[in-house]
Specification:
By secondary structure, the protein is α/β, with parallel strands linked by helices. The protein has helices at 9-21, 28-35, 40-58, 100-113, 131-146, 161-170, 186-189, 195-207, 224-237, 263-276, 288-292, 320-329, and strands at 63-71, 117-122, 126-127, 150-154, 157-158, 174-176, 211-213, 216-218, 241-246, 281-284, 306-308. Bound molecules: iron/sulfur cluster.
Amino acid sequence: MEDDKELTAHDRISNFGERVLAGGQITRDEAAWLFSLESAADIFDLIAWANRIRERFKGNKIHLCSIVNAKAGNCSENCSFCAQSSYHQTGSPKYVFVDPEPVLEAADEANKNGVTAVGLVAAWKGLNEGPLLDEVCDRIRELKDSGKTRPDASLGIIKSQKVADRLKEAGLECYGHNLESSRRFFPNTCTTHTYEDRLETIGYLKKAGIKICSGGIIGMGETREDRCDLAFSLKEIGANVVPINILNPIPGTPFEKNPPLPPLEILKTIACFRFILPRREIMIAGGRTVNLRDAQSMVFAAGASALMVGNYLTTLNQSVERDLQMLKDLGLDPSWDNHGFSDQEAGGCGCAEPACETNDLVTTGVPDCSA
Ligand code: SF4
């Protein structure tokens, strides 16, 4: 067989693209080579293939999500990127868990704009059994009963199956829990909980039958190898939705002086994720407006199939109206049926492989689905 290392970059990218379009996969080494591309010509070549892969597996649908910050600030954790950690002096808002009104207002707003899901987000380490869990379940139930949106949540570390089962019973459909970066880089982002705590939480949620929204943040000082490893870890855990956040350095946090990633590096990262995760929702979340500026509409050409709209916790996005206009101008369709998971139903892990049987995930560790 021809040694593909003899091929030009253009031919090699095309070979990988053809393989993924045909339902195949690229290896970890092949993906690392894509992440290492430097020239603008090669990156645009990669983006063109990522766009074809997105169209092949996701059509022209773009899944929109929004979030409501249900408890802000004073978080016990020391995540280096986060304005809400009690370890950092950032001046970001602080309030206790919210009453129903702001959550229902967010549902109204989402419904008005055709946004698929509203996620309840709380700045705390995690959720245990007790009165607070009862209150959280009430908010989820109210969101579901409103009939206006898919009820999602991002509520930190979960340490028991019972908590995950209660959330499912309340009507929760999807839980946001990022791996943040590679296992190797994770201790640079947080030392008050571990990568294993996060995997364990995802295991409980999957066992409860809750879909997983898990991705990370780029631009924290991690290497391209770390980004590549993150994408493969997300593939292994069977994340249904993969949010890519781009660091927006917040004054007062340890990452406040991190240099911004160049827009082409960001677009290349999105394209590489599309090659590795051809069927998953790849969502562009925090940091897109400040980091991509005029290039932000290119995220879809680079392979993104979902967008976080509205403001993102402590930072601002462009308006929802501008986002909707951007999609219209590109001929993309933000309307969704089946709650945004329409092509991921075959496999329990969301891999869309008919034979996949990872519904029965263990509560710890990583499932072995590699589809
Ligand atoms: S990212 Fe979440 S867990 Fe970490 S400090 Fe911020 S609010 Fe707390």
